[in-house]
Amino acid sequence: MSDAIAGYLAHVSIERGLATNTVTSYRRDLLRYQRWCDARSITEVEAITANDVADFAGSLRQAGVDTPALGAASAARVVVSVRTFHRFVTREGITAVDPAHEVRPAAIPRRLPKALPYDDILAIIENAGDAETPEGLRDRALVEFLYGTGTRISEAVGLDVDDVDLETLTVVVTGKGSKQRLLPLGECAADALEAYLVRGRPALAARGRGTTRLLVNTLGRPLSRQSAYAVVQQAAARAGVTRVVGPHTLRHSFATHLLQNGADVRVVQELLGHASVTTTQIYTMVTVDTLREVYASSHPRAL
Fold first, then answer.
1. Are 188 and 224 in contact (CB under 8 A)?
2. Which burial class, exposed, middle or buried, applies to 192 when counting CB atoms under 10 A from its CB (0-12, 13-18, 19+)?
3. Rounded to two decimals, what is the model's pTM?
4. Among 213, 251, 252, 257, which one carries the catalytic annotation?
């Protein structure tokens, strides 16, 4: 079992070139699967049956001795990891049949992304950092960039200085599956980045040993996702926004505000880096809800 998992992880990492975070998620999911099999004295991947896979899938929503219960979305992700693992070992000839072929992840309740009103976004940006300090300039640039481009937090902290072109107002972002896309930079985000690059980053980078990363911490090292998340949370708290706010909230708000102002869903799909427009279309449900609310409160025959 261990050798099969190692072979699969090497396959998705080297041959398929999946992102480090994706490979890490696969590893975590499959180690959970292996522990479950070990507890039932199943040590060979060839010995796993369809019933075993189904039982494992059913156990994910229940807490174990040393494993917490998972939510619907997390449980579905683990099942997908197990299915792709078994598909791989069957294709490689390690097993004759795929025991996970008929096992499907449970349906996930479709939840609408929660966007912030534009006034809240402005307040968060204004409270993102002190423009008189290198850290403040970085924090302001980070928040402006996240809302201005709709990038994922992993994409933002993974940027190198050379990925940003302030002359053409563009940025090259590396997304899921190491796929790159060229995004436009709005003037507000560009101004914040320029201020940071001129007056903030040199002071921060001088404290470290040199890095090409755009966003650096107080020690001159690449800014982590956790630290970037904290920057957004703290800015929202100072702005008086009572909702739980993280980097993904800014991404949701970016997409929703574009669609509310007439952007084509295919354009938003490209900007967000979604492989399928179906993923992007969930944001159109948000705008339909907004239209419905306006209609209900404004039309004399709506009620």
1. no
2. buried
3. 0.67
4. 251
